[in-house]
Write a structure and sequence with these properties.
Distance between the termini: 8 Å
Organism: Bhargavaea beijingensis
Protein name: 5-methyltetrahydropteroyltriglutamate--homocysteine S-methyltransferase
Number of domains: 1
Number of helices: 11
CATH class: Alpha Beta
Helix content: 25-40%
EC number: 2.1.1.14
Number of strands: 11
CATH topology: TIM Barrel
Order of helices and strands: HHEHEEHEEHEHEHHEHEEHEH
Pfam family, one: Meth_synt_2
Strand content: 5-15%
Structural class: alpha/beta
InterPro entries: Met_Synth_C/arc (IPR002629), UROD/MetE-like_sf (IPR038071)
Strand order of the largest sheet: 5-7-8-9-10-11
């Protein structure tokens, strides 16, 4: 993918140096959001501050070498719940400890539940969020927009309605709702869409697969439904819409909720999804090795290696990262690989345990290594 593309040129690959999308919230933004929830500033006042911080973020992304920009998810409290609660039939509710238990961190008590027929009525707030980001970034800048996967409705939403007999039934309405929303994002100018999905971890270990069984589902059938949901939401998309997917094992205040490699789900993830790129965690032993990349069966699929962690401030050894890229290229050609941080820097508004300058040092690290490995302007 290259920046400054004519409107008619087809864009189908991530950048060699890319990123997952979320960034640490500046102090001014955190303060404004707190004041809004206290009722001391209005929604319009908060939006004006968000606009200003996103404008600064877009410039910072460019200054630190990124070819594509996001809004940092600055208008969200959660990477996933805010979006899901914007769909018809899904609402926020208070939970005992979030939707998953994280290692070493207590999650805010919030979740979403299905309270009626799921749908998309055309007025989802994220459409306006994208339009504003596009306006701020300008036509000459590649803009990436991130949304949670449709599988998060199954994997993270409680079922509190008699509309659906069993949880898998939500897919009959979730898929067309997502399909229509993605079409509206495209019509608004979106040409780079990233679908974020932590639910695939359900198939990474036998412990997680047993959890699925205990909840009444067959993991061997469910994984096919997961793939069908992704493929259904992006079916018949325009040729110039790049769609990637990020698979994560949890990212909350520098902690995680599970481990496990890609092998058990590899044939589906690498051989059964119609996405153009996969952003995958490979920053430590929790993610397993590169052997599952052998399941990639298309020359037009790019795997973005998340070798630089967003969870810790220390910079990885450059030569060690390059050696791991060479190792990955034993299973997939170098031309089908790219580099990014393993996850975002702030999947929730709390953010990970590093400073903004340490965050940008990580981004510059990715950009430099990618230039050394692949050359060009990434």
């Amino acid at each position: 993918m290259t920046a400054n593309l004519p409107e008619t040129q087809i864009v189908r690959t991530p950048f060699r140096a890319d990123h997952v999308g979320s960034f640490l919230r500046p102090a001014a933004l955190k303060e404004a959001r707190a004041k809004f929830h206290e009722g001391t500033i209005s929604r319009d006042e908060l939006t004006k501050i968000e606009d200003g911080e996103i404008r600064r973020l877009v410039e910072a992304q460019k200054e630190n070498g990124l070819q594509g920009v996001t809004d940092g998810e600055f208008r969200r409290s959660w990477w996933h719940l805010d979006f899901l609660a914007g769909l018809d039939g899904i609402e926020f509710y208070k939970t005992p400890n979030g939707t998953r238990k994280f290692s070493g961190a207590e999650v805010r008590p919030a979740g979403v539940k299905v309270t009626g027929k799921i749908g998309y009525s055309g007025d989802h707030p994220f459409i306006a969020h994208f339009k504003k980001l596009k306006e701020i970034a300008g036509d000459e800048t590649v803009v990436k927009f991130t949304i949670p996967s449709p599988n998060l409705v199954f994997g993270r939403a409680a079922l509190a309605t008699d509309v659906y007999e069993k949880k898998e039934d939500v897919y009959r309405d979730v898929v067309p709702a997502y399909h229509a929303l993605i079409r509206d994002l495209y019509d608004a100018g979106c040409r780079y869409l990233q679908i974020d999905d932590t639910a695939w971890t359900s198939f990474f270990t036998e412990t997680e697969r047993n959890r699925i069984r205990e909840e009444g589902s067959d993991p061997d059938r469910l994984i096919l439904q997961f793939a069908d949901a992704i493929n259904g939401t992006i079916a018949d998309r325009p040729e110039d819409l790049l769609v990637t997917m990020h698979i994560c094992r949890g990212n909350y205040r520098s902690t995680f909720f599970t481990s496990g490699g890609y092998e058990d789900a590899g044939k589906i993830i690498f051989g059964g999804l119609d996405v153009d790129g996969l952003f995958l965690e490979f920053d430590d032993d929790r993610s397993g090795g590169f052997e599952p990349l052998r399941h990639v069966n298309r020359p037009d699929l790019t795997v973005v290696l998340g070798l630089v962690t967003s969870k810790r401030p220390e910079l990885e050894d450059e030569e060690a990262i390059k050696a791991r890229i060479r190792e990955a290229s034993e299973y997939l050609p170098l031309g089908q690989l790219a580099l990014s941080p393993q996850c975002g820097f702030a999947s929730t508004e709390e953010g990970n345990n590093l400073t903004e300058e340490e965050q940008w040092a990580k981004i510059r690290h990715v950009v430099k290594i990618a230039k050394d490995v692949w050359g060009g302007n990434n």
